Amino acid sequence: MQRRTIVGTEVAVSTVGFGGAPIGGLYRPTDEETAAGAVAAAWEAGVRYFDTAPHYGLGLSERRLGRALAGYPRDEYVVSSKVGRLLAANPRPTGSDLEAGGFDVPDDLVRVRDYSADGVRRSIEESLERLGLDYLDIVLVHDAEDHMDAALGEAVPALAELRAQGLVRAVGAGLNFVAPLRRFAQLPDVDVLMVAGRWTAVDRSGATLLAECLERGVSVLAAAPFNSGLLSTAWPKDGAHFNYESVPAPVLAAARRIAKVCQEYGVELPAVAMQFGLRHPAVASVVVGMRTAEHSRTNARWATAPIPDEIWPAIDAAVQEPAEAERS
Q1: Is the separation of the CB atoms in 312 and 249 below 8 Å?
Q2: Residue 239: which residues within 8 A CB-CB, separation 6 or more?
Q3: Phi and psi (nearest 5°) for 294?
Q4: What pTM was computed for the model?
Q5: CA pair distance 301, 274, nearest whole angstrom
Q6: What is the pLDDT of residues 78-96, one digit of tens each?
Q7: Longest CA pairwise span in the chain (Å)
Q8: Catalytic residue list
Q9: Partner of 117 for a Cys bridge, out of 27, 98, 158, 263, CB 3.0 to 4.6 A?
Q10: Can you tell me the distance from the alpha carbon of 111 to that of 126, in angstroms, rounded to the nearest whole number?
């Protein structure tokens, strides 16, 4: 599997990134053996970039990823984690984090939003301890849409200081929305941005952001290529989710038009979804959640499957079809 370098740094990520939320129990429980198997299978398939966060399973994803990677040479893999949520003892646990945080784990801890410089430093220290690492390759300011002043004014400068000290090798932000990411892209200290679900085969709303990143020398990590499962099967299903919600009818129709093109060319829709993001020169890696060994092997296969170049204009036309019809 190829590697691409984060612009302006020495950090080289594999073109497929291991998304660590599922091994933290996202939506349903994942046992230790299954999580370790997912990481091992990803490594065997050539994945060398692993993404996690304190948010994922209240630290469980970081702990599991650290244990799973402990047997591999540290200079051969890249780990990213995130800041913005500290973990503290939960004074009123209910037994499960599923309703509050979306992870099927005990809620003995609670998330506390903190984008201050002190909070960032504490978050890094705690993440390093959970991961069992001496430094983090990439640190992203996480889900800061409603905390932009502190994120831009305190979190990013604090991360830049930690980068100068060698505890962090690349600084960035990871969000679900384009407008706040564009503000991060304007900061000179930002090396990389993770955009979730906004640069995919069916959702091109991140196009302006990616163009700006390319111009400014900011690398992009394109996360959630399947848009919460919509593009993960050969034929998008009724009732599928799109960006964590029920799929709107126009988006489902567009996804099915893409699926028809894939059928015509004899390729799998999930393979197109995985490889779409990598065609943009600003994108360094496509990051996808992996829960099991089979998920890891399948995602790697989709990411490296042969796809004819002529399919891409046909897919672009399929996505644009309604707009074109309105203009005619």
Answers
A1: no
A2: 246, 247
A3: -65, -40
A4: 0.95
A5: 10
A6: 999 999 999 999 999 999 9
A7: 61
A8: 56
A9: 158
A10: 13
Burial class (CB in 10 A: 0-12, 13-18, 19+), 81: buried
Q: Which residue in the block uniquely carries the two structure tokens 């430094």?
A: 135
Token code pair at residue 40: 């091992």
Residue 235, CB-side half-sphere exposure with 13 Å CA sphere? 5
List Cβ<8 Å contacts ≥24 apart for 3-9: 3/48, 4/219, 4/283, 4/284, 4/285, 5/219, 5/284, 6/138, 6/170, 6/191, 6/192, 6/219, 6/284, 7/191, 7/192, 7/217, 7/218, 7/219, 8/191, 8/217, 9/169, 9/170, 9/191
- For residue 28, give both structure tokens: 């349903």
Length of the chain as a residue count? 328
With beta carbons less than 8 A apart as the criterion, state whether 171 and 159 touch. yes
The Cα–Cα gap between 12 and 176 comes to 23
Round the average pLDDT of the chain to a whole number and report it: 96
User: How many CB atoms sit inside 10 A of residue 305's CB?
Assistant: 14
Q: What's the confidence (pLDDT) of residue 327? A: 37
Question: CA-CA distances (angstroms) from residue 12 to 17, 138, 280, 284, 293?
Answer: 11, 10, 17, 8, 24
Residue 31 to residue 141: CA distance in whole angstroms = 28
